[in-house]
Amino acid sequence: MDKIIDKIWRFFSSVKLAIVLILIIIATAIIGTVVQQGLPDELYMKHYGMTVFHIMNAFDLFDMYHSWWFELLLMMFIVNVIVCTWERLPAIFKMFSNPKLKLPVEQLHAFKEKDTIPYTGSRETLIKNLQQKLKEIYKNPIRDDSKEGDFLYLEKGRIARFGPYVTHISLIIIFIGVLVGSFFGFDSYLNLVPGESSNIVRTVRGNNKIVLPFSIKCNTFNVEFYNSGIPKAYKSDLSILSDGTLVARKVIDVNKPLKYKGITIYQASYGQAGASDFTLSLTDAQTRENDISLNLNQMYHVGDDTSIAVLDYAQNYQGFGPTVLLGVYKGTKLINTGIYLQKYPDFHGAERVDGYKIRFIKADESFYTGLQVAKDPGVPYVATGAIVLILGLIMSFFSYRRRIWIFIPDDASNHTFVIAGVADRNKYSFEMEFEKIVQEIKKGVNI
Amino acid sequence: MIHIGHQTNTLLLGIATFVYVAAMFFYLFGLVFKKKFLDIAGFVVFVGAFLIETVGLAARWVESYHLDYGHIPITNLYESLIFLSWTIALTYIIVDLKYKIRKLGFPVSLTAFIFMAYASFSPDVNSRIEPLVPALKSNWLVFHVITSFFGYAFFALAFGASVFYLISDWYTRHTNGKVLAYLPSTKVLDDMSYKLIIVGEILLAIGIITGAAWADYAWGRYWSWDPKETWSLITFLIYVVYLHLRYSWGWHGRAAAIFAIVGFAFVLFTYLGVNLVLSGLHSYGSA
Ligand code: HEM
């Protein structure tokens, strides 16, 4: 049993696994950008044909970012980050509290950056001069002695060693936020016509009913357009009612939501709520015009026994623009219907209803406001994680750790000492830095 | 008060396009004839093109206020192409002043020219100043676009450095170790490409995060797997792989250069491909 756990642990502590997982996540995430997500099934069936549809559906390709296998991949990835970080953290703390002040001499000679420098005078003077010089040009060295001689140790950019760990921990914080959001939050929508109120919303995914602890009333809704017809702004004046009493009120705008009790109400969209007010023009035999205004289904007497009513409205009927369906009644009995196009008033030619030529002038349209009602208690964690992520990246990269050892052997017969160094990253920059230090030392120690 | 018309800004931007071409030729002759004064002339002309472009963008910004739309000029395909060439140019100038990478001027001016010419002369790209739909009226958008675009710019320069690396490396191997005198050494190019990627990665991370913050403010959902979001994450992850390969396996040199070049294909797809090939929420696809 322990062996299995050990095996799993080792599996997840590998950076190789991280690379493989990230590449798989990349490859699969691309699928979801090529296959449009979350459309109605019928569209997929039409586009792909039944056989392909069933295969793709079996792999959840139409909602793949929420499929069990994609979530499993993300889970494995986060376990990978946790295990990796956990495993290496002790070494990092040890490095911080207990740097290696001396190394076996053979190891110094194995570094790429190294030099052997001759000196004159006594060992003690040399060490003193070195300490002085290094303090001036680089850093105050730490002195340590071993059986074979003295070491001077220099280190810079240690903080950068923490950077990757801060970055990895930030991923864990973000993940916690995502989990909190998915367990304790919801994301729903609510469409309201001005004057209407509701405390029931429906989730974006799954269309499930959620009952809010308050109701939302839309007092007014306004859309402004640019001349080109593109919407410029849309705003809803909302009231929040708790047990029938007003507890909050705000005009919300896209990018300016209303927050109440941890639930945020966003202006997300708007739509046509059908036209409520229609203007028709009636022209009698003497060509006298008469404009009338009607609501949907409202009867209007054109003769003693004949009346008309607007039965339906379409903003753009088969590409012909705004259109009404008009019903003609004898008494209360519908005897005829006809389509009237705003853009083509002569569509009906000379046809008349009880002596009147009818034209459809305009519809005053009303809109509903599309609200997004969301609660996500995970956001503060995700936001914190995001900031920590950036800090971690900056910590990792704005500096890099490099270490230099200088070894002055007790055996002073050949009058040389060794300098060697190594950098975790930026080997090239370090090469330059190391060269400069060596130059300075060569110039400075033999005074 | 001077009225800056629509023609002024597009005219200035059109002129900048040709000045970039001039800079490109100076740099090219500099590479061919190996004369230092040609490189210097290239740099001076390049900075000139950049300044004209800056004035053009500023004029466009002012003009958008005259039209009562009032927005920073980074919101449709035309503006984004111009702005991207501007960020690449500025990044190059700054990096050049600090690290002396003048030779990169040739691919950089070529790139700036290509983006500007595509913006100015392609029939698919509309140069009119357009109003913003309400969702785009947000300060987060400004941070988001600026950081993302500078991220793209650093990746673009890393791409250039990596291409030079491969050229220099190829030349060295085929001439028995003779180095290409007029390019920086392979060591310098390798190091430069890595450092540029690091800065690009940090900026891209900030870009993704400000984008998420904006989505949270506007729609209450910081992440919705929209194709643009997903591709920017994919690009971020590609470079995460690069950093880990480099750090944990010591990948560098040719392998790293090839990786950086492939990585840039992901950047380009995130920037343009998503809008031109896929569909999603972001604005300039239909421009
Ligand atoms: C999106 C995910 C990740 C990000 C943003 C990230 C970021 C980083 C960064 C910035 C570094 C420093 C690299 C350098 O200095 O050049 C690093 C190093 C490292 N990463 Fe990651 N990483 C991620 C995922 C992972 C995963 C899943 C593992 C698990 C195996 C992992 C393991 C490591 C290790 C072992 C190092 C070296 C640490 C050291 O300096 O001691 N990383 N990572």
Which descriptors would you attach to this protein?
heterodimer; A: 447 residues; Double Stranded RNA Binding Domain; 10 helices; 18 strands; 35% helix; B: 287 residues; mainly alpha; 76% helix; disordered C terminus; binds protoporphyrin IX containing FE
Bound small molecules, deduplicated? protoporphyrin IX containing FE
Tally of separate domains of chain A: 4
The H/E string of chain A reads HHHHHHEHEEHEEEEEEEEEEEEEHEEH
- Gap between N and C termini of chain A: 67 Å
Rg value of chain B: 20 Å
- Number of extended strands of chain A: 18
End-to-end distance of chain B, in Å? 32 Å
Range of helix content of chain B: over 70%
Report on the structure:
The complex is a heterodimer of chains A (447) and B (287). Chain A is α+β, with helices and mostly antiparallel strands and 447 residues long. Chain A has helices at residues 2-12, 15-34, 41-48, 50-58, 68-97, 105-110, 123-137, 163-184, 379-397, 427-444, and strands at 113-118, 142-145, 149-156, 186-192, 197-203, 209-225, 231-242, 245-253, 258-260, 263-283, 289-294, 300-301, 306-314, 323-330, 333-341, 357-375, 402-409, 416-423. Chain A has four domains: 2-92, no CATH class; 99-157 and 400-444, Double Stranded RNA Binding Domain; 170-273 and 369-390, no CATH class; 275-363, no CATH class. In chain A, strands 4, 5, 6, 7, 8, 9, 10, 11 and 16 form a nine-stranded antiparallel beta sheet that branches. A five-stranded antiparallel beta sheet of chain A has the order 1-18-17-3-2. Chain B has 287 residues and is an all-alpha fold. The model of chain B is unreliable at 1-5 and 280-287 (pLDDT under 50). Chain B contains eight helices and no strands. Chain B is flat. Chains A and B meet through helix 2, strand 7, strand 10, strand 16 and helix 9 of A and helix 6 and helix 7 of B. The structure holds protoporphyrin IX containing FE (HEM).
